[in-house]
Amino acid sequence: MNDLLTRELRSIESVKGPLLFVKSSSAIAYGGMVSIIMDDGQVREGQIVEASENGAVIQVFGPTERINPEKTTIRFHEEAIKLDLSPLCLGRVFSGSGEPLDGLSAPAPLLRRGVIGSAINPLRRALPRDFLQTGISSIDGLNTLVRGQKLPIFSGAGLPANEIANFIISNAGLGGEDGGFALVFAGMGITFREADFFRKAFESTGAIEHSVVYMNLADDPVIERLLTPRFALTMAEYLAFELEMHTLVVMTDMTHYCNALREISSAMEEIPGRRGYPGYMYTDLAELYERAGKIKGREGSITLVPILTMPDDDITHPIPDLTGYITEGQIVLDRDLFHKGCFPPINPMPSLSRLMNHGIGEGRTREDHRQLADQLYMLYARGIEQRRVASIIGEEGLSAMDRKYLSFAEEFERVYIGQGTLGRSIEETLTTGWRLLNLVPQSELVRIKKEMIEKYRVGEHSDGGAEKEQD
Amino acid sequence: MSGAIVMISGPTIKAGGLSDCFMGEVVRLGASQLVGEVIRLERGIATIQVYENTTGLKVGEEVSQTGKLFSVELGPGLLGRIYDGIQRPLGELAEKWGDLIERGAEADGLSKKTLWRFTPVVKPGDKIEYGFTLGTVQESKNILHKIMTPQGVTGEVSHVEEGEFPVDHTVVTLTDGAKLDMRQSWNIRNPRPRAKRLSLTVPALTGQRVIDTLFPIAEGGVAIIPGGFGSGKTMLEQTIAKFALADVVVYIGCGERGNEMADTLEELASLKDPRTGRPLMERTALIANTSNMPVAAREASIYTGVTIAEYYRDMGYNVVVLADSTSRWAEALREISSRLEEIPGEEGYPPYLASRLGAFYERAGRVSIAGREEETGSITIIGAVSPPGGDFSEPVTQSSLRMASTFWGLDSELAYQRHFPAINWHSSYSLTYRSLLKWYEDNVSQDWDETVKKTGQILQREEELYEIVQVIGADALEEKERTSLLAAQLIREGFLRQSAVHPTDSHCSIKRQEKILTLILDYIAAVERAVEQGAQVDDIIESPVTERILRIKEISEEHIEAEIRDVTAVYTASLAELIES
User: Fold this and answer.
1) Which of A73, A462, B175, B543 could anchor a disulfide with A37, C-beta 3.0 to 4.6 Å?
2) What integer pLDDT is reported at residue A462 of this predicted model?
3) Contact, B495 vs B517, CB < 8 A?
């Protein structure tokens, strides 16, 4: 069936946004690649997104300007879109469609692989259980990340999500000499300023040596944005499962990706779902996110940290909502904490790591980790509750105990969450937590076993039980 | 019989030239023989839903007809295995194709290699019809698998074999020459017949206190668990899969996370059934169609699961079906509907969403078995719902509510406070509580209704006081009201909150639940008396005995009576002391 390989057509019926509608009477393969050759010799790539007896719909990767239906030729290729793979891709920067951006020539491929990817057989998945230290207390201590997990950062406009991503990258063992780690970075629809921030950051920490970077900037073709994460993940799969490296994938900004998806869907005149996003957005996002993980019998792993901007800080917006349903938790940034000058402004309340329990405890972090985290959560929740009450009735109206909760919450935000730009080891994070517990009497520590309290409590504390207050 | 592809759009394909094609017919497409099902017929054009990724398929490629409806294979060997949405065993796919699921991969639902010892029940000369037991196979230590007469077969037995055979070996021959082996196939969209539906009077116990005590579900009932992400739906489904007092559990991972499926698999494989001491996997069939596996297979997965459940029900077992999550199924339906360019209903879901959901949930029930009416079996369905943005007014939650007799509303606020299971005691309800009450009175305690009511009142009182506290602060409350707050806290922390990982707390027999609750209620009554007589609530809160009562739930079955006796003596003394001072 090689007839498709060289077949050319000159029968474009219409051009609509990034889509070409082509008339053809012979066999067209769904998902196949095409070259679009314009009258001035320029070539653009495209993919068949709908095939029928009468013709095909082609998505063009790149602008459709200057495409003249009368004078443009379509050349059909046999195969679906593929990516060249080689260990030499490490240390390189590519565009969102895989062209080198660093002035060097493209590395010679050892392997070509389709970018769509097949689902990992759930039976062959190894459960992620290796602690990955990010250096951030509110992640390591409260919502631990493990290798092979997908944990997004939900940000808002103006919140420092990129700085946090960079913090994680530089602490996750990537800057080191160890060849067992790799970073794949996919920028989708990001501004030059953001791209520049990451490029500089990678260079200054030396992470670039172990990195493959894909940059689709805000003024690059929208449709390329749909390919960028697929390139990045195909590369990550190669690094993790063939070269057996622990691979961290950072993708930013998923909101731009989803908006690109909506743009294409609407150009195809599909029936829109919630807020105009296509009904298959859940499946589409799942096909990306689910490529994270570990496979039994293979050394490497793919840890995925997608970053998205919640429009108007709305966590129920379809993009964060669908993401949260697919990923194994989320790290949520908070504007109030940010305004208080707290860095990193991670709100532990709506944040969650579903795989935390597998990655912590004796032999991984420390035996008291789970109970300590639960206790901090409980006290912080109470403190916030009291803050709400105090905002109505004033602090004087609170009982002595309630005031303790309130000051616990304040200190917790100042010291534990707001650690600044210095990373903490897991031991430092745990110790910081224990020190904060000294702010309340021991009788309040109901989520921690007695033996643990005796073994791990640090610093000076008012001994609980018969606490007497002057008022 | 074959035709040709005329249009391809994602998982939806149109084909022409098919002859004698019928709705629901299974077809094979193209060179890689992808599996599809006919879902619409219109002027000679068949619309086909394809269960695999269609990339690379070409217009003009062949579509071959099978003349069959979409069916699963039923027989010994279903338990302990893990299937995708169209009953391909993932273990065999991995052996043949490696770590990734490739297109066109094929494997039988039941292994033809395993040998099963068939012990006949019928003998030559017996007359058989649908549902009659032909013989039995010991599938696992606790599951005696009945080989039953398939649909459409009646007649007289002429020959029976006994011994160890693979599933496709003929074990019973009829006088008309019909040969029966240990398998039967069943169209997944068609419920298996039942002789009669019975009323629901026995609870399906889950080992979870908030469920079994406050919001019980009946054997044969339907419960739904709606909750935003992170509220603990999957955790609750997994916990129930582990600790439910069921004979057989069918777990359907429908469009959910791959790592979570790996977790469920690992847990079920390593854990033992607390009652029988046997590995949990022996009583479990798993359907795993993760979110990145083909969307049409996701749509089929819940039917595949419930059909397997019906098959075990028909052997006389009590089966629990856990579907996580029905919203993903509904989204698959929406995706396919939109590719068919059907007129959308609310939120883009097709207008037939409610009727499809209804038809699925109605496959639950306690029944007398078709063909063997003296025997009964049941299917209990527990469906997770993932409402977008945690908004329960959306179509899937609302359509499910109509079908469910029990509603466990998950609450993100509780989850944020790490109170699990995060079942909100104000919004949740059980419509079967009344009809189950007699069972509780006969089997647990004569005062059951009283106990549950009192618990509800204490929690309700807290809700009322909470509004006042929001305005004036807890300090301004009177001692009596502060006692009420303490009472509610004891129930929340000491009873409702349950650890999913603690070795003794993670599952709680109904007897132990009753003991813990009674102790807490007795203590509350004693505290109320003590406060009336002048004891300070603050002192009681800080008293070590309060903490000890909060930890009673961690005491094992055999030690709990002694602990309760001891703690009762201690609190009586300590409260008396507090009145004195």
Assistant:
1) A73
2) 54
3) yes
